[in-house]
Design brief:
Length: about 325
């Protein structure tokens, strides 16, 4: 990879490739024009950019408050869900797992939580793109068990997973009970190995997550802790190349470990993380990886790997097969 993490011209064969997206935050993909609309209706100033000003996870997370302070009702959550799916459809994403932390948008009571999740799920069901929902909780914030129990109430009705997002310096152990509650009826993915290294991955693996959000800093354990490296290779990694640049995980895509991880047999998918904050699309992320030594069939294989790791595997594989048959 020699490209910088930025939007580049997308080769048509990648734009047309049917794609599976597993790691896409609803609040990180909101359209700026939509935020301007919402701000105008509320008589509030609109943010002119959501791009982070520094290269660390903490800096990267700051613009999210512009979104969560404006998108504060089920109706507005429905709107950003519909628009996200429209944007994914235009990018030939055929199966998407979107995620959001409802308690960043609505008050912490079960009725408000249920209304927020239900509004998002209604839009997902109505849309042409097959999609499922992962409920997140933000590390270091209260009401984690409320979020977990709310997510569980929608198990089998569109919510397929639970995730811990936010400042990785806060250990998942701070939310141990909520994680275990959610994992009783939902799949689990935990952000780890992004801002922090192998120790954060070891902590997360103690909850037996099916997937890790990012996880790419496991590369630091390749020589130093081969047992941890091997254990992590049994989990699926949701890799988000541009986001890794913007949070300072790697300085340049040339230094990204994705090729080494693939060579070492890791199951991984390519994802956007936050389409607006990182100014990207899934086709763009895939294009960043598409060098001479990665063929189109390898990129298609990565979509199969993503579908196998989807929390609704049957739906993802069906959506991919259907798109390929036309
Ligand atoms: Zn993320």
């Amino acid at each position: 990879m020699t490209q910088k993490a930025s939007m580049r011209t997308i080769p048509p064969e990648i734009a047309l490739l049917p794609k599976v997206s597993l790691h896409d935050h609803l609040d990180g993909g909101v359209r700026l024009a939509t935020l301007a609309d919402i701000a105008s209706a509320k008589g509030l100033p609109a943010p002119t950019t959501l791009r982070p000003s520094g290269r660390s996870l903490v800096e990267y997370l700051k613009p999210f408050s512009h979104v969560t302070s404006l998108v504060t009702s089920p109706d507005l959550l429905a709107r950003i869900t519909r628009e996200a799916l429209d944007d994914l459809e235009a990018d030939n994403v055929v199966y998407a797992e979107l995620r959001f932390a409802p308690l960043l948008h609505v008050s912490p009571d079960p009725d408000a939580l249920d209304a927020a999740i239900a509004a998002v799920l209604d839009e997902m069901r109505a849309h042409q793109v097959t999609s499922r929902l992962i409920v997140c909780h933000l590390r270091g914030t209260e009401h984690d068990e409320l979020a977990a129990s709310g997510a569980l109430r929608f198990a089998g009705r569109g919510v397929v997973g639970f995730d811990l997002a936010g400042d990785e310096s806060i250990s998942p152990h701070a939310h141990a009970k909520a994680i275990r509650t959610a994992h009783e009826g939902l799949a689990l993915t935990l952000h780890a190995g992004e801002a922090l290294g192998p120790d954060s991955i070891r902590e997360s693996l103690s909850y037996s997550p099916e997937r890790l959000g990012h996880g790419v800093r496991i590369i630091e354990a390749k020589s130093a802790e081969p047992a941890l490296y091997k254990a992590t290779s049994t989990r699926h990694l949701e890799v988000c190349p541009s986001s890794n640049i913007h949070t300072g995980v790697v300085s340049h895509l040339d230094h990204h470990p994705v090729h080494t991880l693939l060579d070492d047999g890791f199951s991984l998918s390519i994802n956007t993380d936050n389409r607006t904050m990182s100014n990207t699309t899934l086709s763009n992320e895939i294009s960043l990886l598409a060098t001479a030594d990665i063929s189109l069939s390898m990129l298609a294989d990565l979509q199969d790997a993503a579908a196998r790791a989807a929390f609704d595997r049957a739906a993802a594989q069906a959506a991919l097969a259907s798109a390929r048959s036309v």
